[in-house]
Specification:
Shape: globular
Number of helices: 8
Radius of gyration: 19 Å
Oligomer: single chain
Largest sheet: 6 strands, mixed
Protein name: cysteine synthase
Low-confidence stretches: none
CATH class of the largest domain: Alpha Beta
Distance between the termini: 47 Å
Number of strands: 10
Strand content: 15-25%
Pathway: Amino-acid biosynthesis; L-cysteine biosynthesis; L-cysteine from L-serine: step 2/2
Order of helices and strands: EEHEHEHEHEHEHEEHHE
Strand order of the largest sheet: 1-2-10-7-8-9
Catalytic activity: O-acetyl-L-serine + hydrogen sulfide = L-cysteine + acetate
GO molecular function: cysteine synthase activity; pyridoxal phosphate binding
GO biological process, one term: cysteine biosynthetic process from serine
Length: 314
């Protein structure tokens, strides 16, 4: 028996994906399925670590208010954790935030503030972050800043990377993950590089339209990845390849995996698996490799978009 729902965070399952693996070339593909976390995403890990770090230094107490820029899984994770621990939460969102996400935040008792102004790139991200910092300073609230808070990569260094290593007995040749806010890719990559005898191939994935790898910003539909700036938690020095994935390829892969593996995934997970499939087909992964894709969240939040006919075309 566990003491609380928070004790169920982590120790998610690594599942082999035969439909993407290559028997003839002895390439095995595995998915780290993070929707087994109670908040249905990998962000539960980072959110808990950020808050627990404040608790260890006595910089937060029950009744205090956390304010954070979020439009997706981080808000869900923080709202759940704050509800359990007795903290107040203000989520800074924008008009593109799915209504379902806002309802989830409110269900856990969080307050929601919508920003209407866009930044110079036509995105709301910088405005949301600026608003969260201004409110933190003005009201004495705590802004975690998931884009630069070291707790985000540390959570995945201490737990996610270690779990993958143990599940495959240290036999990992390729890691593929979205950058997102940088935390899970950087933390897992750092752990594997430090603990494996041979450095694995580290592949970073982002949507077409994200500027993390350079280029001009453009609209995209993939949730949970893609930024109009480069987050401090992205450790590009660990990365061997930076690849972008289109909405169409990501969403098509989500639907393919649902039909052939019985796994319902979100768009960022689809982009990871799409890149893995492309690398295997083009000979970018050597024979005999164990390939791990980090699959951040469930497709349940995207039933009316990704899994709705006609919504995933470019």
């Amino acid at each position: 028996m566990l003491d609380s729902i928070l004790d169920t965070i982590g120790n998610t399952h690594l599942v082999q994906l035969p439909v993407l693996s290559s028997t003839s070339r002895k390439i095995n593909v595995y998915g780290k399925i993070e929707y087994f976390n109670p908040g249905f995403s990998i962000k539960d890990r980072a959110a808990l670590k950020m808050i627990e770090s404040l608790e260890k230094t006595h910089d937060i107490k029950p009744g205090d208010t956390i304010v954070e820029s979020t439009s997706g899984n981080t808000g869900h994770a923080l709202a759940m954790i704050c509800a359990k621990k007795g903290y107040n939460l203000v989520c800074i969102v924008d008009p593109k935030t799915p209504k379902q996400n806002i309802l989830i935040y409110k269900a856990f008792g969080a307050n929601v503030l919508v920003v209407e102004e866009m930044d110079e790139n036509g995105s709301y991200q910088k405005v949301r972050i600026k608003t969260a910092k201004e409110l933190s300073k003005k009201n004495g609230w705590i802004n975690l800043d998931q884009y630069s808070n070291p707790g985000c990569w540390m959570a995945n260094y201490e737990h996610t990377g270690k779990e993958i290593y143990q599940d495959l007995n240290g036999k990992i040749d390729v890691l593929v993950a979205c950058v997102s806010t940088g935390g899970h890719l950087s933390g897992i990559a750092k752990f594997l590089i430090e603990h494996l005898t041979k450095k694995p191939l580290i592949v970073a994935v982002e949507p077409v339209g994200s500027v993390i790898f350079g280029g001009k910003p453009k609209p995209f539909k993939i949730n949970g990845a893609g930024l109009s700036f480069v987050p401090k938690n992205y450790f590009s020095e660990y990365v061997d390849m930076e690849l972008k994935c289109s909405d169409h390829n990501a969403f098509s892969m989500c639907r393919y995996i649902a039909k052939h593996e019985g796994i319902l995934l979100g768009g960022s997970s689809g982009s990871v698996l799409s890149v893995i499939s492309s690398l295997i087909n083009k000979g970018g992964i050597v024979e005999g490799s164990n390939v791990v894709g980090v699959l951040p969240d469930s497709g349940l939040k995207y039933i009316d978009t990704i899994y709705n006919d006609g919504t995933y075309d470019d």
